[in-house]
Every structure is written in structure tokens, then in C-alpha cells.
Design goal:
With 174 residues, this protein is of the alpha/beta class. Helix content is 35%, strand content 22%. It has five helices and seven strands, in the order βββαβαβαβαβα.
């Protein structure tokens, strides 16, 4: 709620902030810092709803993970959090993000989507720094961003700078 004048308040709508992008692009780190930057906020790392071994995007059982994401996001929004930060690699796909959003039971909230990206060189270095011995896949990196997402290139930027760019977009939405 924002004070306008004597006795007048502007009710701000809740904001569901979606952060997607390739593994190792910085989604979780950015989402955690963004979540901490706002009071009355909640954070869901959606990739934990998909934490299975072996992982395969085509495994039909993972649609149950989508339902878990919708449930948690509904819970947070229905609980009155002003900002709900949600990060996941799989919400780059329209056929996954759309049903997750459609199953949210809360009403009257704004959705702001961000797709994080970087160069192949940066992605390779981040995998190495994480100690990931698996082969680096550039598949996710070259997917088109979800329609109407804000795209942020994370190359040569600090987490604070990336979060600052995001907050500017978020704070301009009233």
C-alpha cells in the first residue's frame, strides 16, 4: 500500500516475479538476493520441485512437479506476500510455464518474467567454478526467451547489478 495524499492510499497489486534461464546462468543466486531485497516477500526455487534422478525434461511424471509449483505459488500469493520470486529452468518452455500459471488459485496479481542469459564462455566457466564435471549443454542457453520476458545478459555483471536491473523494472510497475 502506498500513501498518495491525506487519507488516500494506492493499493499495489502483488507481483509474481519469474526468473528463468539455463542451468548455471545465475537464477537461484539472483532470485535469492532479489527475494531478500523486498520486505513481505517469498521465494520458490522451482527446480527443487523437479529434483529427480535421472532428470529428463520428457519424463511425464515431472508434470507432478508443475502441480507442486502451482500449489506453493498459490499458497504464497493467497497468504498476502507482496512479492513472490519464482525461479526455475523449466519455465522457459511455454508448454510448462502456462499450465503452472493457469493452476494458480490466487487472483489479481501481476506477473513479471525475466530470462537470464550469458555467453557460452561464461556458462562454461560457471559450470567449472561450480565443480560440475558433466558436459556443459548449451541447449537451454539458446532457447528463445519466454514471450514478453525481460532478457538480462549476466556476462560481466555482479549479482547486485543484475538485481538492480530487475528491481528497476519491478518497481516501475504499480
Amino acid at each position: 500500500m502506498q500513501k498518495m495524499g491525506k487519507g488516500e492510499y494506492l493499493m499495489s497489486r502483488q507481483k509474481l516475479i519469474i526468473i528463468s534461464g539455463s542451468p548455471c546462468v545465475g537464477k537461484t543466486t539472483v532470485a535469492d538476493e532479489l527475494f531478500q531485497a523486498y520486505d513481505n516477500s517469498a521465494f520458490l526455487d522451482g527446480d527443487w520441485c523437479w529434483c529427480v534422478n535421472p532428470f529428463s525434461i520428457s519424463d511425464s511424471r515431472l508434470r507432478n512437479g508443475d502441480k507442486s509449483m502451482s500449489y506453493v505459488l498459490s499458497n504464497y500469493l493467497n497468504s498476502g506476500f507482496d512479492y513472490v520470486v519464482f525461479s526455475s529452468v523449466v519455465v522457459m518452455y511455454e508448454n510448462i510455464r502456462n499450465p503452472i500459471l493457469a493452476d494458480i488459485t490466487a487472483k489479481n496479481f501481476d506477473i513479471i518474467g525475466f530470462t537470464l542469459t550469458c555467453s557460452e564462455e561464461t556458462l562454461r566457466e560457471r559450470h567449472k567454478n561450480r565443480g560440475d564435471n558433466n558436459e556443459v549443454s548449451f541447449h537451454w542457453l539458446h532457447l528463445p526467451p519466454y514471450p514478453n520476458d525481460y532478457v538480462i545478459n549476466t556476462d560481466d555483471k555482479t549479482i547486485h547489478e543484475i538485481v538492480g536491473e530487475m528491481k528497476k523494472v519491478i518497481d516501475e510497475m504499480k
